[in-house]
Amino acid sequence: MAVDPDVDLHVPAQRQERALDPAVLSTIAVGGVLGAEARYALGRLLDSPDGGWPWATWLINVVGSLLLGVLMGVLDGLPRPHRLARPFLGVGVLGGFTTFSTAMGDVPRLLGAGRPGLALLYLVGTALTALPAAAAGLWAVRGVRGRRGVRA
What's the pLDDT at 152? Predict the structure, then answer.
């Protein structure tokens, strides 16, 4: 959503109060359930050994970040995306799918298992792979769109 450059958001009279929209909230909730269920299913398929690299959580976060980049690129290229697309897919589905809170819980578990080097590598590695994955998803969509001559 673009902000009108003539509006000073620091002036209360110029700010629009945003009421909680039941459609947006319920859309996020439904998307969150779907994303969390997908995360649980994928987590059950992947084995992460005790005291070892938390493969399931890492992969879920990197794939979720990539998909978020793709989603933002796709929605950015649409002239008028549905108003519930971002809340449902971005906040709900992908917010429920990714699990950075679990990743941050994995770090103390690795420390408790006597693996401080792995804990640090996992902490830094999660950020150094998830952030570029999101950028790669966005760049991939923009690259495809550019080759087809569609608005970038």
Answer: 45
Dihedral over alpha carbons 143, 145, 148, 152 (to 10 degrees):
-110
Please give the full DSSP string across the chain, using - where no structure is assigned: -PPPTT--TTSGGGSPP----HHHHHHHHHHHHHHHHHHHHHHHHS---TTS--HHHHHHHHHHHHHHHHHHHHHHHSSS--TTHIIIIIIIIHHHH--HHHHHHHHHHHHHTT-HHHHHHHHHHHHHHHHHHHHHHHHHHHHHHHHTT---
Do the beta carbons of residue 98 and residue 62 sit within 8 Å? Answer: no
User: Which residues does the chain have with pLDDT short of 50?
Assistant: 152
Place of tokens 């995306």: 81
143 with 70: CB under 8 angstroms? no
What whole-number distance in Å separates Cα of residue 121 and Cα of residue 142?
31
**Encoded amino acid at 109, one letter:** R
pTM: 0.81
